[in-house]
Amino acid sequence: MRISRNNIVLAALPLIAAAGLAIPALGQDRPESILPPGFGEPTPAPTQAPPRPRPTAPTIQAPLANPQVAPLPVPIASDTPLPGPTPGMTPSPGATAPAPTDFAAFVRADMPDYARRSLARVGAAGPAEGAMGPRAFGRADGRYLETLMRRLNAPIASRWVSIALRRALLARVDTPRRVNGADFAAERSWLLTRMGESVAARAMAQAVDSENYTPKLFEAAMQAALATGDPAALCPMVDAGATLRRERGWVLAQAMCTGLSGMGARAQPMIAAARRSGLAGGIDLLLAQKVAGAGQSGRQAVTIEWDGVEQLTAWRYGLATATGVEIPATVLATGSSAVQGWRALSPALEPHVRAAVAELAAARGILSGAALVDLYSAIEGDDDQSLAEVGIARDLRAAYEAPDVAARADALKRLWDEPKTYEARYARLVLTAGAAARIPTTLQGPDVDRLVAAMLSVGFDPRALRWREAAARGSNAWAMLTLVDPAAPTLSAGDIGAYAGANDPEGLKQRMFFAGAAGTGRMSASDIEREARSLGVPIEDATSWTRAIQQAARDQEPGTVVLLAATAMQTRLWHGVAPATVYHICNALREVGMPGEARMVAVEAISRMSLGL
Predict the structure, then answer these.
(1) Which of 19, 34, 97, 324 is least surrounded by CB atoms within 10 angstroms?
(2) What pLDDT, in 10s, does the model give residues 379-433?
(3) At what angle do helices 595-610 and 508-519 cross, to 10 degrees?
(4) pTM, entire model
(5) Phi and psi for 462 in degrees, rounded to 5?
(6) What are phi and psi of 421, to 5 degrees?
(7) Cα–Cα distance between 331 and 321 in angstroms, integer?
(8) What is the SS3 string spanning 131-191?
């Protein structure tokens, strides 16, 4: 019997028609301020979208976790630059379409009015598909939202906040005031790409009709196409993009698309002209030449050598993946963390190649536990039975199907004990959630802490609550189940004090337990105030970030709340997230009608820190 699940994560939405193009750099500067200038001040409605706010305003003092964790930039080129502006550097002044071209005229003539999509409401999914509703961002200023998105460094600490953020970014929402709908879609697509959500990013870019593309959306759509390893997605609009922005990437894209359309004889002179003019060279040009030669009548073999390549770029990743060129591990190591998500979602890679990055993607919320189980189910049948991934797949099968409960529990323990890194340990909880849910409470001497943590990592709270009586008061499992149980009574100061938490000499886990309990509404106001003072959790301290997330909660803007929550979790380590931050995030999520997500964030704080994460 094969281990299989049919649930598909929201990131794997069906792709719409191919969208267009540019080659922005994949790196991102460290944010100087998380909120735009003039935040909190009334602004009259402009006659046209004003210039992009400059980062000259006073810096917002947000609880941005661990400031020492810096992003890994992936510039677009090194030996032969193919520069392109990062999406969002210059906003479009209004509903500007690409310059008149034969292509644009064809689209307008070919598409009837009823089939055209309005820029007043743009997105790739609705509530029926698991995304947020059209009022997710309410009355928030669009420039303010775009600034938050552009300055957000991924990945973020919380898997559940990442999932909620994807739901907000993909949502079919009303375009916020003071921004163009296509530009707002571009910012969302660009952030999804940086989060590793390549499929979702491409779907978001394709949610806008091609005739309404702005320069910013052309750039974001190119980035998404490269992240999915599909240069053919550039072809429907390559002429429009090249006419709009005469950049090096567009010139090479024209040559590639000419070759992919079966006109190899015309593509090769275009590649040669680019080489002679110094427009491009090195591996970037060779990869473009290889793509161009992949079309019918290409009749040309191109050998790609990675010697001397010191940096992985979006261009190199996308074209190498599309043509089946193996990227050396040393070059992959120079890429952004987003590349791991792209590879995890890539159907072009063999399952055993995707396994390691897929586990990281699951820990970050890009893949579901069910998708991860499906992947290892495919790996188990690999012809090479000596692969380490095959051994993991066998242990996973044993965790589901071993003949007795003790053997299944032993298989779970092997899977949990093997990883060495913090993200990999949490990913194994996600991988084994379904198997953990099948363990009966009659098991003698169970590892209740990790059984409960595994089930709650994917939201199996009803099944986890079966272990309520087996969880010793004050244990990690007891703390997690107390936070997740909606029927549990109001917690007192004594309950908070009962949570000792192993390996917690500084009392950080106890403070996090209090923050989660208070933020999810499990304590009275008087007890919250008293315990906050006693434990030294400054929940009353007001900062620009706390005021912003509280205002978003009062205005019933779940998308804004989630975006602000993500800005406060720009770190891979939960130890870099302050308990007061968790309190405000959980409280805001609860106020905007997301109590389940609030409980999961509170539980995740305990489970991650209990595993040294």
Answers:
(1) 324
(2) 998 877 888 999 999 999 999 999 999 999 999 999 999 998 888 999 999 999 9
(3) 170
(4) 0.83
(5) -60, -40
(6) -100, 160
(7) 13
(8) CCCCCCCCCCEHHHHHHHHHCCCCCCCCHHHHHHHHHHHHECEECCECCCHHHHHHHHHHH
